[in-house]
Amino acid sequence: MNLHGVSGHPEPSSEPPIPTGSSSPKLKISPKLNRWSMGRALRSGGKLDRPIHRSDNTPRRQVTESKQTDEADKKTTAIDVETTAGKSIYLVSDGTGWTAEHSVNAALGQFEDFSLNRGSSVNTHLFSWVEDEERLIEIIKQAAKEGAMCFYTLANPSMAKSAKQACDQWGVLSVDILGPIIEGIASHLGVSPSGLTRGAPGRVKTLNDAYFKRIEAIEFTIKQDDGTLPENLSKADIVLVGVSRTGKTPLSTYIAQKGYKVANVPFVMGVEPPKTLFEVEPRKVFGLKIQLVVLQAIRRTRAKTLGVDTEAENNYSGIDLVRKELDFASRIYAANPGWAVIDVTNKAIEETAAVILRLYHDGRDTSTTVPRISKRY
């Protein structure tokens, strides 16, 4: 089974095999990594499979592992919501809910330590395309029953007003995310907002040149995933490189949705990267690096998910092999100083993408300082 996800690249035979009779050294994950992983799980409504340690002598609270949550479960109706342990947050939108969801998730990142210390989870429920008052009131009543907090992004002033009144009436703590922004822009521009929802008749349609450019970028990125069609690397706006499990594919997809053509090329021990990679303008190439212990933990989880045998798991996530691959990538980065190298350890995709796009638009011209080499390392 190809754990690296590299198409057409066999595992090298030059590397010494890891003995099948002995397992790789037991993974020792740092407290920082533990707390980061636990915090991410709790913030997203997940539950832990071990007790939460408290500083006092009170009994530990055993939290069991939850089943895998489907993304569609968040997009539910008031009737479908099940009350679970921890605090609940309702996100109500007359559109897709992207603004509300990302704003609240960004804010929740500030409370990971609180969630860990309390051993409690925060459950978010997204209600999108809420365009009639009856459904809006139904959702807010359900929030009141559950003791949830409500965030809403409603472009229609009448709906936003109804949401505020209903939340006050039913004692639901609420925040209007979009309202203050619209008011501020209206004041700055000196014009009144349209008040039209995203799908309302008369709203300017989004099927413009920018939309089709974004679709084209997504299609290009899918075709260029994992080193496919290296002859097209010169056509990419951005090229991501790195060893397996550094997040190249999800990062490529995320950036492509912003209208950039992205290609990604994996670095595999014993497999020379395509020559066309070194012909790409250096400022367009971004190397991804990650801490050893974190990468090993990610790979081990990946291997267990795929259900591979012990030998295959050790050949993919053994500490010595992972270290060699990271060193291999580091040598390539050192030979190409014009490439920006970004540490993705414990970073969300959105964070890494923001750094890449900022550097990309800086327009650094380092082509005169980077050697063009056909053989490396």
From TrEMBL:
Residues 46-76 have a biased composition (Basic and acidic residues). Residues 22-33 have a biased composition (Low complexity). Residues 1-76 are annotated as: Disordered. Pfam families: Kinase-PPPase. Keywords: Kinase, Nucleotide-binding, Serine/threonine-protein kinase, Transferase. GO terms for molecular function: ATP binding; protein serine/threonine kinase activity. This is Bifunctional kinase-pyrophosphorylase. It comes from Arabidopsis suecica.
